[in-house]
Design a protein that fits this description.
This protein has 382 residues and is α/β, with parallel strands linked by helices. The chain has helices spanning 8-19, 136-156, 187-190, 237-245, 257-264, 267-270, 303-313, 339-346, 363-378; strands at 27-31, 36-41, 51-54, 62-67, 72-77, 82-86, 89-93, 100-104, 110-113, 123-129, 162-168, 230-231, 285-291, 321-327, 352-356.
Amino acid sequence: MRIDTTYAPSILFALALAACSGDDSGTSDSQGTTAGSVTATATDSSSSGGESSSSSGSDATSDATSDSSTGTTTTTTGSASDTESTGGESTTSGASASATMTDATTDPTTTTTTGEAEGCKKVDFLFVIDNSVSMQGEQTALKAAFPAFIDTIKNTLPTNDYHIMVADTDAEGRCSPNTCSHSTCQAANKYACMDIFVECDTVRGAGVNHPAGEAASNMPCDFFGGNRYLLSEDPDLVDNFSCAASVGLAGHPSERPMDGIVEALAPAINAPGGCNDGFLRDDAILVVTFLSDDPNVEDVNSSFDTYDAVVAAKGGDEDRIVMLGLIPQPDMGCGKGGAHWSEMISLFGERGIEGAICSEDYNAFFQDAVSTILDTCIINPG
């Protein structure tokens, strides 16, 4: 831009006034959750000196100037008190210049300053998995999708404090020392029928850490911390999730995932001394995932009962809950039934997401869910 020297003093005076104009200087100031984000649009404001800069004094909110020859924009957040201009250079200085400054060298038009992301500090993940005889492929797909899912969660959410618990959909299942004739009880030398299990192993909703029967781990899962749920600092997190999620096929033929959800989140089971002692935290967001292919309606709790119980578990705050369900979707050619589960998921609005249980690969489902989990995390700062 050429400037007629006849009018140079007036133009320089006008530039100096613009440098002091705060929010009227062509910048936009947007406040995030904890850290300000300042965006400035660079224009051609340099003359023969080719440089324009700003720093802060006492009354301006934000100021942005640009260098058209270098494509560099300097943004200063603070306040300004006095101005001087010399030659082709306009400088604003002040007494108290504690400003946040960003130098954008890659984009000559926009500079954005953002602070450390803030959101939830804790997340509790509950997986309720149908352990009936038809679920081997679905359990395998879940275990295959988990490593990428948890890696994305770690790289996306502003917290690494997780509880991760697996529960199944029945109480005692088909196998016990007194009942061991079913084919799903014969695996690993009838491991599921041995007298080696504790009371919580036969409580629906209790965290699974010793799955048994056909296609199950048939061994105790070595969880770091000694709970019936995983901690994020578990050095073998993925392997231990796989151990727990291998709930097997020896479960009761009456699959009741909504009952499993309700009972896993009940106050008594999460109280001190309960099977899930310490899993559910008041200041965490809750992400529930359930999987079942049952075409029938077996749950005692209705869709609305389940919704009410889950919301009550979070102190009435629905905004702290994400509900994910991999269920039959007859309209998509995936199984039969599932309408009651779909209804329950829909009660959570935009934080309720359903996918097809028939899918051979659950990666896309879980990766798509991360954005909803992140949104829930951000609106619930710790």
